[in-house]
């Protein structure tokens, strides 16, 4: 009786471009090619690998699709940083294709962020905690300036981007303080997915009230981070992230990546 072949599928053959991409990928993952390093020029790579320039271009496209390199026109091909935004952008596009909403992202964050902060409280060094607090204070300064300058005015997109850019280091520092590489890699993609929110203004709202609400949130978050008590931190953050039904419904109707229009005042959260 003939012995049955258990390896019946043929080995997949790689193209020259795939082989070249694999070789460069190994160098990147090993750290020999660090984030920010520029690859040799197209003619140089073609000569080094003994391939055509068309093969080099195909290999570059493969590496770009994997988020390992990025092309800066006029400057060259650069190795991306480990926390590059390629994954976040790809995830955002994928969620848009399946009609993901702002609530999908928010609900996911409500599940993992309390755990992230809880882990950071036990794993962060004193220096990391101090750095997070400093970043939080810098963010509050920008928030104060924002509400003072733009109260009841049309806020330009550049100002909204500035607010997001100011909060991003706070969030990333907390994720980094977990010392968990999976969480660290999720920090930027989650910020890329996060929707801005526009809350309705109550008749008695003032810039001072808006600043106080934002300050309350950040102060409570810092209380959780500095507590060194994972259970307490988890409870504080879960409470902070809770949203009223009106906000949840509005976010369910908002496509991921767009601004959520909340029909109630932000000040109602902490009354």
Any overview of this molecule?
The structure is a single chain. The chain folds into two domains: 16-79, Orthogonal Bundle (Arc Repressor Mutant, subunit A); 87-270, Four Helix Bundle (Hemerythrin (Met), subunit A). The strands form two sheets. It has a two-stranded antiparallel sheet. Strands 3-4 form a two-stranded parallel ribbon. It is mainly alpha-helical and 271 residues long. The protein is elongated, with a radius of gyration of 24 Å. The chain has helices spanning 16-30, 42-49, 53-65, 86-97, 102-123, 126-150, 157-176, 181-193, 207-226, 230-241, 245-252; strands at residues 69-72, 76-79, 197-200, 260-265. The model has no long low-confidence stretch (mean pLDDT 88).
Reconstruct the topology from this structure.
Layout (H helix, E strand, L loop, with lengths): L15 H15 L11 H8 L3 H13 L3 E4 L3 E4 L6 H12 L4 H22 L2 H25 L6 H20 L4 H13 L3 E4 L6 H20 L3 H12 L3 H8 L7 E6 L6
Parallel strand pairs: 3-4
Antiparallel strand pairs: 1-2
Using brief descriptors, characterize the structure shown.
two-stranded antiparallel sheet, elongated, 62% helix, mainly alpha, Arc Repressor Mutant, subunit A, 271 residues, two-stranded parallel ribbon, single chain, 11 helices, Four Helix Bundle (Hemerythrin (Met), subunit A)
């Amino acid at each position: 009786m003939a012995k049955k072949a258990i390896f019946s599928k043929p080995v997949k053959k790689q193209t020259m471009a795939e082989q070249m991409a694999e070789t460069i990928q190994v160098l990147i993952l090993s750290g020999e090619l660090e984030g920010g390093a520029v690859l040799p020029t197209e003619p140089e790579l073609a000569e080094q690998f003994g391939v055509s320039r068309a093969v080099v271009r195909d290999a570059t496209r493969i590496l770009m699709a994997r988020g390992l390199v990025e092309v800066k026109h006029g400057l060259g091909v650069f190795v991306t940083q480990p926390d590059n935004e390629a994954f976040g952008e790809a995830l955002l596009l994928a969620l848009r294709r399946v009609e993901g909403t702002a609530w999908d992202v928010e609900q996911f964050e409500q599940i993992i962020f309390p755990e992230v902060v809880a882990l950071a409280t036990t794993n962060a060094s004193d220096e990391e905690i101090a750095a997070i607090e400093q970043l939080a204070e810098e963010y509050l300064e920008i928030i104060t300036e924002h509400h003072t300058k733009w109260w009841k005015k049309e806020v330009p997109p550049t100002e909204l981007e500035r607010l997001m850019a100011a909060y991003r280091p706070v969030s990333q520092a907390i994720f980094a303080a977990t010392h968990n590489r999976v969480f660290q890699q999720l920090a930027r993609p989650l910020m890329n997915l996060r929707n801005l929110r526009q809350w309705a203004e109550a008749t008695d709202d003032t810039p001072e009230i808006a600043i106080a609400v934002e300050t309350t949130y950040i102060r409570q978050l810092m209380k959780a981070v500095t507590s060194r008590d994972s259970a307490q931190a988890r409870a504080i953050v879960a409470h902070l992230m809770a949203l009223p039904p009106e906000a949840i419904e509005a976010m369910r109707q908002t496509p991921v990546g767009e601004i959520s229009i909340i029909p109630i005042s932000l000040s109602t959260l902490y009354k």
